[in-house]
Amino acid sequence: SQQGEEDPQALSIQEGENATMNCSYKTSINNLQWYRQNSGRGLVHLILIRSNEREKHSGRLRVTLDTSKKSSSLLITASRAADTASYFCATVGSARQLTFGSGTQLTVLP
Amino acid sequence: EPEVTQTPSHQVTQMGQEVILRCVPISNHLYFYWYRQILGQKVEFLVSFYNNEISEKSEIFDDQFSVERPDGSNFTLKIRSTKLEDSAMYFCASSETSGNRNEQFFGPGTRLTVL
Fold first, then answer.
1. Nearest to A4, CA basis, from A95, A99, A75
2. What is the pLDDT of residues B33-72, one digit of tens each?
3. Are B2 and B102 in contact (CB under 8 A)?
4. Which runs of consecutive H residues, i.e. helices, occur in B1-115?
5. Strand B43-50 vs strand B31-37: parallel, antiparallel, or unpaired?
6. CATH number at residue A64
């Protein structure tokens, strides 16, 4: 679980399939963000969902948020080999600092 | 598209030496951050900086660490006397002030190797 471990830690799928990653958190939040990290590179912001939102879409990404369960999920539809990366959710602290979990390593096989 | 840049991409140093990692945040951003990622571990927050002062720091950010914004564009992280356990990727990030959106833009990182 985030703050926390992500679920699953590793995921391997075939190109074209959907990938779902989950995280849970422990504190109250204003928003929750998802980031991607390609191997050995910096993090790239993917999507932000506010605490008063339940679902948000951006291209092939769909994020859900359940504040009652303190959990979020990231769905990547019609995955591509280029989606291979680590995915992290992050919560925001009082000084705007991000707290990341351990992430999910997604491998999309061609 | 504006981006955060970091130099050097890889720094090798001897234990006990001082290192300075440099970052150029996105020009209209006002909030700056340093994070680190030890190989195989999660990304950890080190320090946040706003209005020329530290706004938050983690327990990792002890007296051996300092940050500075020496001019209008650079943001530096200094480690005074490096230890073996300081070996990690160090990421700089910046964000603009826009309520609590706080989308952070990360640089490509500096890989620090302490021998």
1. A99
2. 999 999 888 899 999 999 889 999 999 999 999 999 988 7
3. no
4. none
5. antiparallel
6. 2.60.40.10
**Confidence bin at B78 (pLDDT 50/70/90):** very high
Cβ-nearest to A103 among B42, B102, B111:
B42
Q: Residue B10 and residue A10: Cα distance in Å, rounded? A: 28
Q: Distances from the Cα of A110 to the Cαs of A21, A41, A76, B52, B105, in angstroms? A: 20, 22, 16, 48, 30
Is the separation of the CB atoms in A54 and A103 below 8 Å?
Answer: no
Write the pLDDT tens digit of every residue in A36-65: 999 878 899 999 999 999 999 999 999 999
* CATH node for B5-96+105-114: 2.60.40.10
- Please tell me the distance in Å from A44's CA to the nearest CA on chain B: 7
- Interchain CB distance below 8 Å, A100 and B44: yes
